[in-house]
Amino acid sequence: MTLLDFARGPAFQWSLIILVFGVLWRLLGALLLARRKDKSKPRDHNAIADGALTIATRSLPAHQFEKRIRFQHYTGYAWHIGLFVTVLFSAPHILFFKDVIGFGWPHLPNSVILIGAAVTLAILIAVTIRRATHPVMRLISNSDDYISLLMTIAPLVTGILAAAHVGFRYETMLAIHWLSVDALFVWFPFGKLIHAALIFPARFQAGAAYGRRGARA
């Protein structure tokens, strides 16, 4: 068995199992958290509407803080969008999705994907440097923040190198890229990257709970 066979075979299968069960475990744990029963009389409200409104309003920062968090706000949206486009609209990725789910969709030109991946990588590196040098960000950051950033950066770096045929021979770089994705899958449920699965349920829950009290989350 070659390194590439291992990376996209047993390593990928086990990392995917850990990802799926880990995310389900975290979601189930959040749902089953012990809560005291709210015995107060609820205000007239629609829990679904209140939850959906909070998801929408919390996707943008409060105007009071906009000036102070502008960098995090715009770079955060930029690299998430760049990563989304790179993962979902790269031709090799679409072929992989087609093998897994049975259908594919149109892809973007390789040059566009490479530029998008490079811009996303540059933003993530800038975010990492800022986190390490900004006096406040440095104080509130821990190893989880840096490991999560590294786990996100690694597939981008290895993917760009593999696509550009730079570094080791193509099969080796592709195997390293696969292994970096496998590592990301394993880390995802246990680090701060899990926010991607929890953010909207948490916001919905907060909006519904505060709406019951006649307040906005």
Number of domains: 1
The number of helical elements comes to 10
Going by CATH, the architecture would be Up-down Bundle
Cα gyration radius (Å): 20 Å
What is the helix content? over 70%
What is the CA-CA span between the terminal residues? 54 Å
The global form is globular
Query: Looking at CATH, which topology would you report?
Result: Fumarate Reductase Cytochrome B subunit
Please identify the structural class as seen in this structure: mainly alpha
Quick gist of this model?
The protein has 10 helices and no strands.
Tell me about this structure:
It is a single chain. The protein has 217 residues and is an all-alpha fold. The chain has a single domain, classed as Up-down Bundle (Fumarate Reductase Cytochrome B subunit), CATH 1.20.950. Helices cover 72% and strands 0% of the residues. Helix 2 packs parallel to helix 9 (170-187) and helix 3 (47-57) crosses helix 10 (195-212). The chain starts with a helix and ends in a 5-residue tail after the last helix. 20% of the residues are buried. The mean pLDDT is 87.
